[in-house]
Design brief:
45 residues, single chain, mainly alpha
Length: 45
């Protein structure tokens, strides 16, 4: 597994574990790109 694949796997795992919004992973990626508060929730910061 290369480093970019590893980072992508971690990002997908974080998106899957985020449960405050009931939507697809694709939608969560878009919302995280647009909404900094949601991004911080996903990153657990």
């Amino acid at each position: 597994m290369t480093y970019p694949e590893f980072i992508e796997k971690i990002a997908l795992d974080l998106l899957k574990s985020e449960e405050t919004k009931n939507m697809s992973i694709k939608s969560k990626r878009l919302v995280a790109a647009w909404d900094n508060e949601f991004l911080l929730k996903v990153l657990r910061i």
